[in-house]
Specification:
The chain is an alpha/beta fold. The protein has eleven helices and six strands. Helix 1 crosses helix 4 and helix 4 runs antiparallel to helix 7. The protein is globular. The two termini are 26 Å apart. The structure holds uracil (URA).
Length: 270
Amino acid sequence: MSGAGEKSRILALLRQELLDLRQEGLDYLGPRPLRPPREQAQPERRATGGKPASAVRAAGSGGWRPRVPPLEMPPLEGDAQVKGQRLEEIRHDLGDCRRCELCERRQTIVFGEGNPDAPVVFVGEGPGADEDRSGRPFVGRAGELLSKMIASVGWRREDVYICNIVKCRPPGNRDPKLEEVAMCQPFLERQIEAIAPLAIVALGKPAISTLMGRPIPITKLRGQWQEWRGYPVMPTFHPAYLLRNYTREARQAVWDDLKAARARVEEAGR
Ligand code: URA
């Protein structure tokens, strides 16, 4: 293995290790003394009658661990390793981003996660409160539904890549402003180009409008293949919209769209 390949593998392992520690309750790594994760986890267990806190609630004081389980990523090899390394470089370039005002109130940059060699990239809008705390995309209620949507067409969450048009939480979950999207867009574009997926699923109006470069109501394009720089894009409803409009029609529509994305990927032999 090349030196660069080994470095990228070690960075990926280190990153996963830190994510695991955060899952176990470690909430700070720095000059103040660390409390061992177990000391934090136990009172939480007592407060939840012995069940893991995540089984009871994911958000709220001290109980922020995501309900969406951590990704079990296999060691990267071949294309995945090269793509993983590119993603690490993009994350490195993003740094401790202060390019727009979203940096002022965010807790964590939510870069994106998943298989660097994913056949499909899901693009959402921006982190919510759970994502802001955990540093992972789509881990709150909308994320749980997204995981189910992904599973409904036979993918696993770790097979795909999930990211957002903005990497920092808009305060109060307001829509991201155009200038905020503009600052983040080069990173989103580089993420997609690094992964070079066979299909992109755009979740909701902000995602499809960003990719198409003009405001478009999702109802107008949903279910119809679009193209971004030669990549097929399937616009569909955002899971948060589905949670608000949990009708048979809306669920069927999203399922149809994801089945179309899955079929497209399978046609290409993946
Ligand atoms: N909604 C989004 O658009 N992205 C997330 O990461 C979470 C909720």
